[in-house]
Design brief:
InterPro entries: NUDIX_hydrolase-like_dom_sf (IPR015797), NUDIX_hydrolase_CS (IPR020084), NUDIX_hydrolase_dom (IPR000086)
Low-confidence stretches: none
Oligomer: single chain
Pfam family, one: NUDIX
Order of helices and strands: EEEHEEEEHEEEEHH
Organism: Muricoprocola aceti
Mean pLDDT: 93
Strand content: 25-35%
GO molecular function: hydrolase activity
Number of strands: 11
Structural class: alpha+beta
Keywords: Hydrolase
Amino acid sequence: MGKIRSVTKMTDNRFLNMYHLDAENRLGGDVNYYVASRASEAAQMKLVKKDDTPDGVAIYSLYGEKRDRIVLVHQYRYAIDDYIYEFPAGLVEKKEDYHDAAVRELREETGLKLELLNVPGYMEKPLYTTIGMTDECCAMVYGYASGTICTDGEEDSEEIEVVLVDRKEAKRILKEEKVAMMCAYMLMHFIASEDPFYFLKCDEDRDI
């Protein structure tokens, strides 16, 4: 097993920082590794704290009387200098429960109200996004959205179009557009299943 000798913070930004890891591999060889992290200090990184506290949350919500549309955002992202389809999402504030963060973020990004589903805990367990380059950990929450779309809560740095996607449009998006991977997998499930939330209704004590 590899070993980390020391961690050095390389940047001082508000939302994301780069850290250098002086490490060694399983054979004792030197390793220089770089990690992007939401942590403001090395002591707050997952490799130090050894916990899976979510940095962010994404919201998979269905909309409409028939609950046959999924709420997505078509958002400009500087990393690719282009627009991409994603779930509404955002960072969890300090000491904020990520379910509360989900309700807040959906309201801020879309103007919609979120009714959270009560699902088995392992279905919402915080997971790592791109572990090869970052220790960012996010939770996915599920629910039903209602209300009227409004983007008045959009920040100056955000360019967001809220879209309510049916199965036909979801298939087109997957074929023709840029889509975040987590969102793409859920769109595939949405297209294929008559009840998009069927998988959430599994009995936690039942073998899967």
